[in-house]
């Protein structure tokens, strides 16, 4: 999910970068293409929550996500 000040247009495709707080597998960010599937107003004024479906991601980025998932389950 994404919290933003502007609404996201559902059905649109975006190229997104997720910046990591620390390096994972020598990566400091994950880049991927995603389609916006929903957008709704947040409880905060002038804010919107949006949900995405990942449609294009590289194998290296998938490995980073796998590593993060394993780490979060271990903590």
Give an overview in words.
It is globular and about 35 Å long. The chain is 21% helix and 53% strand. With 75 residues, the protein is an alpha+beta fold. The mean pLDDT is 94. The relative contact order is 0.27. A hairpin with a 6-residue loop joins strand 3 (27-41) and strand 4 (48-57). The chain has a four-stranded antiparallel β-sheet, covered by helices on one side.
Cα distance, first to last residue?
22 Å
Oligomer: single chain
> How many distinct folded domains?
1
Shape: globular
The average pLDDT value, as a whole number, equals: 94
Task: Please bin the fraction of helical residues.
Answer: 10-25%
Structural class: alpha+beta
Number of helices: 1
Which runs of at least 5 residues are low in confidence (pLDDT < 50)? none
Order of helices and strands: EEEEH
Task: Give the helices and strands, then pairings.
Elements: E1 2-4, E2 13-24, E3 27-41, E4 48-57, H1 59-74
Antiparallel strand pairs: 1-4, 2-3, 3-4
Give structural attributes.
21% helix; 75 residues; single chain; four-stranded antiparallel sheet; globular
Quick recap:
With 75 residues, this protein is α+β, with helices and mostly antiparallel strands.
């Amino acid at each position: 999910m994404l919290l933003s000040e502007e609404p996201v247009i559902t059905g649109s495709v975006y190229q997104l970068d997720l910046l990591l707080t620390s390096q994972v597998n020598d990566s400091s960010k994950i880049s991927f293409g995603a389609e916006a599937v929903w957008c709704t107003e947040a409880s905060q004024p002038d804010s919107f929550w949006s949900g995405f479906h990942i449609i294009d991601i590289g194998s290296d980025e998938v490995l980073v996500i796998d590593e993060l998932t394993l780490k979060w389950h271990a903590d």
